[in-house]
Automatic annotation (TrEMBL):
InterPro entries: Endo/exonu/phosph_ase_sf, Swc5/CFDP1/2. SUPFAM superfamilies: DNase I-like. It comes from the Eukaryota. This is Craniofacial development protein 2-like.
Amino acid sequence: CKPINISLIAVYAPTNPPKGQKANIDESDTFYINLQDTVDKVPKGDMLTIVGGFNARVGKQDSQEPGNVIGPHTVDSTNENGKRLIDFCNINNLIVANTFFQHKPIHQTSWMHPGKKVWHMLDYTLVNRKFRSIVKDVRVHRTAAGTIGMDHHLLWAKVKIHLRSRRKKQHAQPIRLDSKKLRDEKVVDAFQKDIKKMQEEMANDTMTVDEKYVNFVKCIKRLGQEHFQQEQNNHRKQKEWLTNEILDIVNKKAKAFLDWQNNRGTRTEQKHRDKYRMLRKLVKTKVDAWQTEYWDE
C-alpha cells in the first residue's frame, strides 16, 4: 500500500457579516474564493484537512440536509457563514468532523460571546469524505487557551492512519427495494400480474412440491428485483422524505454557486448571486415542508 500524503490548511475566516453590510459580505466571499483556489492546488489523492476558526455556526437542522456534511452533534443555529461553510464542503466533498463526535458542551464549544456570555462552536476540522474513518475524535481543550492568550480554545483531532490496505470480504449484496415504487399502484399491479402468470405456468408443471417452492422463491426474488429495485445511480440510502424534486433543486443550487464564483467581478455577478440565494432558500423550504408532511403521515 502506498503512503498517504496529508495536506493541512490552517485558516481564520472573517466574522459573520451583519445584515446589510456589503463590505463584510464581500470579505467573506473573498475568503472562500481564496480558500477554493488553495484547495484546487491540493493533489486529489491527498488526505485534505482544513482546520481553524471559520467563525461559522451550524445547527442540527443541517444534519438532515442532503450530502451528510454536518453530523448530529451541534450546539448552534446556522448563520450566513455557516451556510457558506456547508456549500463549500458540499462542492469539495468534505465533512465537518467536529459534528460527528458526541462530547459534553464544554468539549464542543470553542468561543464565548463577550456580551451575551454564551458559548458557541466556531472552530472546525474539515476532512475528505473518503478519509472520514481515519479521524477518530475531535474535541476542544480549554487549558491551552490561557497559556496562549487567545479567546478561542484549542481544537484537538485524533487521527489514525491505516498504512495497510484491508481486503473486504465479498458478501452477496442484498436486493435494495425502492419504497416509492412499492407505493406506486401501476408498478404493484404489474408485479401482481406477473405473479399470477407465474402461478398459471407452475400449475401445469409436473414438478414436486419442494421443487415448486424453490422455483416460487426464485421467481418472487426475480420479479421483485425487476419491479422494485432501486436505480443503479442511487447507491446511497436516501431518507424517504428526500424526493427527486429536492435533489434536483440541490443540484441546481450547486451549479448556481459555481456560476456565481466563476462570474465574480463581472456584470452578471449579482444575477448569479441572487439565483444561488433563491435556490438555497427554496431547498430549505422544500425540505421543511416534506419533513412535516412525512412525519404527519
